[in-house]
Amino acid sequence: MIRLEPRLTRPKWLAFAVPIGSIFAAMILGALLIMVSGNDALATYGRIGERAFGDVVAWTDTIIAATPLLLTGLAAAAAFRMGLFNIGGEGQFVMGAVAAAWTGLALGPLGGWVAIPVMVLSGIAAGSIWAAIPGFFKTKFGTNEVITTLMFNYIAASFASFLIFGSESFVRELEGSGKVFPQGKVISDDVIWPAFGGGGFSVPLGFILGCIAAMALWLLYRQTRFGFEIGVVSDSPEAARYAGINVPRTGLAVMTISGGLAGLGGASNIGDIRHMLDPKGLNQSGYGYTGIVVAALARWNPIAVIPVSILLGGLANAGRSLQGEDFPAGLVGTLQGLLLFCAVSGEFLTRYRVRVAARRPKVEVKAA
Amino acid sequence: MNDSIVMAVLISAIFYGTPLLYAALGEVLAERSGVLNLGVEGMMLMGAVVGSVISSRLDAPGPIVLLVAFLAAMVAGALTALLHAFATITLRVNQTVSGLTLTILAGGAGLSSYLANVWQLKDPATHQFQRLNIGGLKDLPIVGPLLFDQTLLTYLSWVAVAVCSWYLFKTRTGLNLRSVGESPSTADAMGLNVVRTRYIHTMIGGAMAGIGGICFSLSIVPTWVDGMTAGRGWIALALVIFGFWRPLWVMVGAYLFGALSSLSLILQARGFAVPPELLDSLPYIMTVVVLVVVSAGWSSKTLSAPDALGTAFEREAR
């Protein structure tokens, strides 16, 4: 009979063995699927690896693809630290993009030194506000944040579509081809965010800001009184209240930080990548949801979010450039899903010890 | 009279509300057992793609093909849900994370799209669910087009609402189900099998989401498009809250949301300029309002979510 025993201590080696084992398990499952559907699994993986990490050009594209995932991943990780599920990274990302497109267009004539910092800050602010509203409902009324943040994604998506397709807004291109096909107005070259690097390899500003944010978040949660309070609230809101911690205020602050990170991702989408508001593209990319995958895979650790976002960014980058007859669409999403399922299931091994023992009817726990 | 704008809205409310109704009814059953499954969108798409391939490739008389497609879509949805059940019930993975993973794995950029590619779904589904003019009554004023000119899927959805209502509130097993969702440890002490109840209802939820999927692939959008359910799975989740976990109210909500999703098209076709994006966001805004009102305690306690919703049952942790 199989029995589960909660572990009292978690061995250190499991913290590394489980994620790596999960990646292998997911690759094996993915390979089976690819073979069943009549393709060569090893060749497919080889091509993914080459397109994702093969040379400097591949690495540059992978880092670009990783940038939004890094920031939405940090957003999810920041909220989960307090046991909050911010599923709204998607909507906060969109609102950040709207704000950055707006300020980028409005301040374009003033040049990059003025406009780019304002784009960054307005993106953060818009994402923060969009997360603070469900955060307020949560802390004031106890409204489940999973569903409200989810609904706010769709409200944000509708709003962005309205700006481009439903109105003659400031961020919409009304001249030239914009008369025929509704599209966003492109920001001027002066306010496109700088990229850093050399020899064909470059890193966008958004990714660097994301790495700084990851370290700041880690310090905030590890080294400060505020971070300690968040941990207490997460473990026991009751105890936190008795200790004099303002639980609602802490929760609201965490949601605001989380939303700000996703909003920064949206701003980077405008400044680094798309250079205009593209509601359809944002809608299809699902950065917010993938961010939760990234954070869960990183076991909600801000620093670990960086390598995980590069891994999933590489997968996304390879999927985009390989898509075609013998590399079906949907394979990347499937691999990402398998990866996460294996990772979260593997998590179980760090929490429970699985004992195969002689049948003892009184204490058995059914494991399916 | 049957051509009036009100009738046009009502007719499309039922047409577009039917997939929402199936998916939301299934989610009601799963959530009543305490399992929140955010993977509705993925389960719907798996049902849709499997139903679509059977409709196009199975060589048999139309009614038989549709029956097989219907059953296969249920199986596809249920198997997708089984992943979620195994992860959350047996492995105690967080339900939110697992559900999202399910949507990423199976959703519009995942397995459903991969399968559609592998199976080369390009042409419209060969066999589709057509409107059935029951007893030739479709020309009756008002009730004709609404009640007697629907597809078989819609007629079946009405049966499903009745059966779910009766099952939840009038049968012993329904009572057991609700007790598992409210307090699994009490239910366990009473001798109920919490794990089995949750597995079964999560899978029934998936099966019904699968039917919701073929409402798209074999009726609304017969030609395969990746991610054809276009976020309806998330609306179904909202509907469950909107309908307070009650089948009848969920039906009302499904038709209301169905009406909203078609209202902008109908209004535009008749020359009213309403930004469709604003109407699109109404269901979501309404759901947030309902959720806030309920959680703020401005309404009766009996309308709130099952107490154990979203929590794993750990027998040894009592």
UniProtKB/TrEMBL annotation, chain A:
Q: Which GO terms describe its molecular function?
A: transmembrane transporter activity
Q: Which organism is it from?
A: Propioniciclava tarda
Tell me what topology the record assigns in the membrane. Answer: Multi-pass membrane protein
- Main localization, broad class: membrane
Q: What is the lineage of its organism?
A: Bacteria, Bacillati, Actinomycetota, Actinomycetes, Propionibacteriales
Location of this chain's protein in the cell: Cell membrane
Alphabetized InterPro entries for the sequence: ABC_transp_permease
Write out the transmembrane intervals. 12-36, 56-80, 92-110, 116-137, 149-171, 191-221, 286-315, 327-350
Q: Which UniProt keywords apply?
A: Cell membrane, Membrane, Transmembrane, Transmembrane helix
Question: What's this protein's name?
Answer: ABC transporter permease
A GO cellular component annotated for this chain's UniProt record is: plasma membrane
Among Pfam families, the record links this protein to: BPD_transp_2 (PF02653)
From TrEMBL, chain B:
Q: Span of the secretion signal?
A: none
InterPro entries registered for this protein in UniProt: ABC_transp_permease (IPR001851)
Q: Listed GO molecular functions?
A: transmembrane transporter activity
Keywords for this protein:
Cell membrane, Membrane, Transmembrane, Transmembrane helix
Q: Where in the cell is it found?
A: Cell membrane
Q: Which CDD domains match?
A: TM_PBP1_transp_TpRbsC_like
Going by the entry's taxonomy, the superkingdom of the source organism is recorded as: Bacteria
Q: Which Pfam families match?
A: BPD_transp_2
Q: Which residues cross the membrane?
A: 6-26, 38-58, 64-85, 97-116, 152-169, 199-221, 233-257, 278-298
Bilayer topology reads: Multi-pass membrane protein
Q: Name one GO cellular component term.
A: plasma membrane
What the entry lists under PANTHER family is as follows: ABC TRANSPORTER PERMEASE PROTEIN, SUGAR ABC TRANSPORTER INTEGRAL MEMBRANE PROTEIN-RELATED
The molecule here is called: ABC transporter permease
Provide the taxonomic classification: Bacteria, Bacillati, Actinomycetota, Actinomycetes, Propionibacteriales
